[in-house]
Fold:
Amino acid sequence: MALVNDRRRFFRRALSGAAVLALSGCDRLSRTEWFPKFLGISESLSSAAQHLITTRKSMAQEFTEADLSPQFRSNGTAKPNDPQYQAMAARGFSDYRLELRGLIEQPVSFSLAELRELPSRTQITRHDCVEGWSAIGKWKGVQLSMLLERVRPKPEARYVVFRCADAMENDGTLYYESIDMEDAYHPQTILAYQLNDAPLPVANGAPIRVRVERQLGYKMAKFITSIELVSTFDHIGRGKGGYWEDLGYQWYAGI
Ligand SMILES: Nc1nc2c(c(=O)[nH]1)N[C@H]1C(S)=C(S)[C@@H](COP(=O)(O)O)O[C@H]1N2
Ligand SMILES: [Mo]
Structure:
C-alpha cells in the first residue's frame, strides 16, 4: 500500500514536471512518442524515485534487424581535432591502446585487436538524444564487466570515468563521462567497436565508444582513450561527473 501511494505521488510529480517543461517552450522536443515520457521521468525525478518503477538491473529493450534506422546519425563531435587522434585514425587505430587505471588492483591496457579477441556482445538498441532524435543501431563490443573482472576494482571504487579524445569547442576541455558500478556491471554496458556490422565509424566514436543502454545519448562517450575508476569526481573537470553535467545536465540520465 505504501508503495502504491509512493507511486501515485511519483506520477503526479512526473506529470507536473512534464507540464512545466511543455509550458516553457519545449514543444519541438515532443515530436517523438517517447519524449514526453522521458521528460517526465528524467527531468523531474531523482534516481531514487526512478527505482520505484524500473529496477536498474532490468534490460533495455532490444530490437531486430528489421527495426534498424536506415542510417545512424552522428551528433556532437564528428571528428576530434587532435592531430594524434587523426594520425592514429589514418593508421586504422593499429597502435590504439585503451588504458584502465585508478582504483584497481591491476592496471592494464588493451589494443583494439586484443579487445576484439575477447568474447563479445551484440545488441540492437534505441539511442535517445536530448536534442529530440532517436535512432536504432546494432552494436558489437566487449562487456565492460569483463574488463573490470580483469583489473579487479578496489572496494572504494564507486564510478567508472571515460576520458575522450575530443576537445570541446566551447571551453577546450576534453569530453568525459561517468557511470556508477551498477551500470558498469550491467550486461548491456559494452565498449562498442562495431556499428551495423562495420568497424565503428569515426563519426560515431572510433575506435571505442561506450553503450549504456538505459540512459540518454550524452552518457555514451565516444573516442574513449582511457577508463579510470574513482571514488569521487572532485579531481575531474568541475566535479559533476561529465562534460555536460558540468554545464548543468543531470548525471543520471535514465530513459
Ligand atoms: N566524446 C564524445 N562523446 C559523445 C559526444 C561528443 O560530442 N563527444 N556527444 C554525445 C551525444 S550528445 C550523443 S547524442 C551521442 C551521439 O552519438 P553518435 O554520434 O554515434 O550519434 O554521443 C555522445 N557522446
Ligand atoms: Mo545527445
Notes: The chain has a mean pLDDT of 86.
